C-alpha cells in the first residue's frame, strides 16, 4: 500500500490556491455611493488607524499620499474615482476590506409627460432625468383620477414608460400623475395634471407616398395611411394637415383635410422637386401629431429633347431618378426656363416671392441634397 | 403649428349645427381663473361614462337626450342670471347664450325623433334640480355658468361620437330595429 504522500507539484499548487484565497477571501463586498465633489474616507475594516496597510483601486496600488494612517482619503471625488477599492494588511497581504465606490449625484427634478396616441383605449406616461446621476435610480409613478388611483403598467421597452387603460371616457375630472425618482443619494419628484382631451395626440401618418401624375406638370398625388397605433379611425376619425414646398423655397403651402387619406396637389411648380409632409389630429380633440417622415417628389415633366441621351443612360428618362451630372444639367435647364418665365412676368408668379426670399435664379442650385425633415 | 382647440366650428351633431358652441373654456371667465375647481357645482349633466364602447344605440340616444333636456333648463338659468345680475349690459353675450339654448333645444328635439324612429322609448323627464337658485351668491352663479358651458362643450364632443356610433350600427344592422330604420 503506497502512502498517500502528495507529490511536490500538488503541494505547491495548493499553497498558491491558499494564498489566493486569503488575498481574495469572501469578505462582504460593500457598495458605497458618494456624491460628486465630496471627500470620501475609507476605513480598512477593523484595522487600527496606525496599522500598516496597502490600498488598491481596481487592483492597482494607491500611492501613500492618499493615506491618513490606514484610512484612504479621496478628495473632491469625480466619476473616475468609481471602482473597486481594497485594503490589504501590510506584510501578510491579507484582504481586510473591500468596497465598490460609485460616484454620482442625487436626482434632479425628472421630466414627465403623458400622451394618448391610441385614444380612446388609454394613454402612456414617459419620463427621463434631465441630467444623469451615474448611479442606479428607482422610479415610482402614481396616477390619480379624482379620488381613484389607477395602475400604470410598466412597459418592457422603453423602460421609462408605463401605460394606462381608460376606465372612463368624456370625463372632465383631471388626471394627476406624480413621478418620484429615488437613488442612494436622494430623491426628487414632479407632478403634472391634465384633462382627458388635452393629451390626445396621434402618431404621425404612415406610409406617406407622393407621386407625379402622368402628363400633368403641376400635379402631385399624395397618399398616406392612418397611424397604426390609432385603434379605431372609423369611430374616432382623424383629420389631416398636409404641407408641401419646393426644396428651393422656405415657405410651406398648407392644406387641411377633414377626411380621406389622399390629396392631389394641383399648384406645384413644374419641374421642381417637392418636399411633402402630413400630420394628423383627432377630428374634435387634442393636438396635431408630429410631422410624418418627409417624402420627395417632382411633378411630371416632358422630357427635354437635347438631354434625352443623358436621361436615358441615367434612368430611362425619369427626371427624378437621374443621378449626378444629369440631374444638375436638368436643374440648370429648368431654372433657366423658369427665369425666363419670370422676366416675361405674370401675376401668379408673384407667389414665389415671400418676404426675405431670394429670386429663384440665384440660389436654387444650393440644396442639391434633400433637406432633412423639419419639425 | 396650429394647436387644435377643444372643438371646431361647423360641427354638425345629428343635423343641428353646434358651431355656436365654439366657445372655448374661458381662460378667464368673469374674473375666475380657469384652474378654479368646479367640483362644488352640482346638477350639471356629466358626460363621463364607463365602457362607452359597449353602450347600445338606445342607451346613447337616451343619455344624450336626458343631458340636453337638463342643459335647456340650465342655459335658461344662466341666461337669466347673466341678464339680471352678472352682465346686464352685455347683450351680445346674452344673444350667444340664447342661440346656444335654441341649438340645444333643437338637438333635444331631434334626439327624441331619432329615438322614436329607432323605436326606442323616451327617457322620462327628470325633476328639476335644487330650487334655491335665488339664494346663490354672485360667485356661485359665475361658477355655475362656467360649469354649465364646460360640461356642455364636453357633451357635444361625446354626442358627435355617440351619434356616429348610432349611425354606424343602424346602417350595419337594419333588421335590429324591426327592419324599419330609415336613413
TrEMBL record, chain A:
Signal peptide range in chain numbering: 1-21
Keywords linked to the UniProt accession: Cell membrane, Disulfide bond, Glycoprotein, GPI-anchor, Immunoglobulin domain, Lipoprotein, Membrane, Receptor, Repeat, Signal
Compartments, record wording: Cell membrane
Compositionally biased tracts (Polar residues): 355-375
GO molecular function, a single term: interleukin-11 binding
Pfam families, per the entry: fn3
Residue span(s) of domain Ig-like: 37-87
Annotated InterPro entries: FN3_dom, FN3_sf, Hematopoietin_rcpt_L_F3_CS, Ig-like_dom, Ig-like_dom_sf, Ig-like_fold, Ig_sub2, Type-I_Cytokine_Rcpt
Keyword RNA-binding: no
Keyword NAD recorded: no
PANTHER family according to UniProt: CILIARY NEUROTROPHIC FACTOR RECEPTOR SUBUNIT ALPHA (PTHR23036:SF21), CYTOKINE RECEPTOR (PTHR23036)
Protein name from the UniProt record: Ciliary neurotrophic factor receptor subunit alpha
Species whose genome carries this gene: Pelusios castaneus
Automatic annotation (TrEMBL), chain B:
Gene Ontology molecular function: ciliary neurotrophic factor receptor binding; cytokine activity; growth factor activity
Intracellular or extracellular location(s): Cytoplasm
GO biological processes: astrocyte activation; ciliary neurotrophic factor-mediated signaling pathway; negative regulation of neuron apoptotic process; positive regulation of axon regeneration
Chief location category: cytoplasm
One Pfam family of this chain: CNTF
SUPFAM superfamilies in alphabetical order: 4-helical cytokines
InterPro entries hit by this protein: 4_helix_cytokine-like_core, Ciliary_neurotrophic_fac_CNTF
Keywords: Cytoplasm, Developmental protein, Differentiation, Growth factor, Neurogenesis
GO cellular component term of the entry, any: cytoplasm
Function, in words: CNTF is a survival factor for various neuronal cell types. Seems to prevent the degeneration of motor axons after axotomy.
Family listed: Belongs to the CNTF family.
UniProt protein name: Ciliary neurotrophic factor
Organism encoding this protein: Pelusios castaneus
Amino acid at each position: 500500500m503506497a502512502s498517500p504522500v502528495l507529490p511536490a507539484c500538488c503541494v505547491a499548487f495548493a499553497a498558491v490556491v491558499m494564498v489566493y484565497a486569503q488575498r481574495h477571501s469572501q469578505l462582504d463586498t460593500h457598495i458605497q455611493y458618494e456624491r460628486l465633489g465630496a471627500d470620501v474616507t475609507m476605513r480598512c475594516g477593523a484595522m487600527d488607524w496606525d496599522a500598516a496597510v496597502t490600498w488598491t483601486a481596481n487592483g492597482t496600488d494607491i500611492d501613500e499620499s492618499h493615506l491618513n494612517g490606514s484610512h484612504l482619503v479621496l478628495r473632491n471625488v469625480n466619476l473616475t474615482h468609481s471602482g473597486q477599492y481594497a485594503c490589504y494588511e501590510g506584510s501578510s497581504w491579507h484582504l481586510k476590506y473591500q468596497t465598490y465606490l460609485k460616484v454620482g449625484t442625487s436626482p434632479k427634478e425628472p421630466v414627465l409627460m403623458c400622451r394618448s396616441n391610441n385614444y380612446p383605449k388609454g394613454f402612456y406616461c414617459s419620463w427621463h432625468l434631465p441630467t444623469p446621476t451615474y448611479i442606479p435610480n428607482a422610479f415610482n409613478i402614481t396616477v390619480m383620477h379624482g379620488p381613484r388611483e389607477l395602475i400604470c403598467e410598466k412597459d418592457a421597452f422603453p423602460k421609462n414608460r408605463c401605460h394606462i387603460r381608460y376606465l372612463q371616457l368624456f370625463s372632465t375630472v383631471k388626471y394627476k400623475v406624480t413621478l418620484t425618482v429615488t437613488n442612494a443619494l436622494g430623491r426628487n419628484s414632479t407632478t403634472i395634471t391634465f384633462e382627458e382631451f388635452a393629451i390626445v395626440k396621434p402618431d404621425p401618418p404612415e406610409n406617406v407616398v407622393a407621386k407625379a401624375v402622368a402628363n400633368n406638370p403641376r400635379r402631385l398625388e399624395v397618399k398616406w395611411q392612418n397611424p397604426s397605433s390609432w385603434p379605431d379611425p372609423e369611430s374616432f376619425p382623424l383629420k389631416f394637415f398636409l404641407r408641401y414646398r419646393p426644396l428651393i423655397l422656405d415657405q410651406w403651402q398648407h392644406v387641411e383635410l377633414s377626411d380621406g387619406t389622399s390629396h392631389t396637389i394641383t399648384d406645384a411648380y413644374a419641374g421642381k422637386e417637392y418636399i411633402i409632409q402630413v400630420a394628423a389630429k383627432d377630428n374634435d380633440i387634442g393636438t396635431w401629431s408630429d410631422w410624418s417622415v418627409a417624402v420627395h417628389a417632382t411633378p411630371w415633366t416632358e422630357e427635354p429633347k437635347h438631354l434625352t441621351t443623358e436621361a436615358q443612360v441615367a434612368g430611362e428618362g425619369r427626371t427624378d431618378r437621374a443621378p449626378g451630372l444629369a440631374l444638375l444639367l436638368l436643374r440648370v435647364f429648368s431654372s433657366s426656363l423658369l427665369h425666363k418665365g419670370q422676366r416675361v412676368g405674370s401675376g401668379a408668379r408673384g407667389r414665389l416671392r415671400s418676404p426675405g426670399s431670394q429670386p429663384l435664379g440665384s440660389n436654387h442650385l444650393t440644396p442639391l441634397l434633400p433637406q432633412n425633415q423639419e419639425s | 403649428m396650429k394647436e387644435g382647440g377643444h372643438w371646431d366650428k361647423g360641427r354638425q351633431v345629428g343635423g343641428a349645427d353646434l358651431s355656436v358652441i365654439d366657445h372655448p373654456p374661458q381662460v378667464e371667465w368673469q374674473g375666475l381663473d380657469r384652474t378654479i375647481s368646479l367640483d362644488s357645482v352640482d346638477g350639471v349633466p356629466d358626460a363621463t361614462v364607463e365602457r362607452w364602447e359597449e353602450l347600445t344605440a338606445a342607451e346613447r340616444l337616451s343619455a344624450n337626450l336626458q343631458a340636453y333636456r337638463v342643459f335647456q333648463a340650465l342655459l335658461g338659468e344662466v341666461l337669466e342670471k347673466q341678464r339680471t345680475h352678472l352682465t346686464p349690459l352685455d347683450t351680445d353675450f346674452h344673444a350667444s347664450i340664447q342661440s346656444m339654448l335654441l341649438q340645444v333645444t333643437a338637438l333635444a328635439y331631434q334626439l327624441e325623433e331619432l329615438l322614436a324612429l329607432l323605436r326606442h322609448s323616451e327617457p322620462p323627464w327628470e325633476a328639476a334640480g335644487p330650487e334655491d337658485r335665488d339664494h346663490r351668491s354672485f360667485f356661485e352663479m359665475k361658477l355655475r355658468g362656467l360649469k354649465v358651458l364646460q360640461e356642455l362643450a364636453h357633451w357635444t364632443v361625446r354626442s358627435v361620437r355617440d351619434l356616429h356610433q348610432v349611425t354606424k350600427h343602424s346602417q350595419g344592422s337594419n333588421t335590429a330595429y324591426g327592419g324599419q330604420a330609415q336613413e
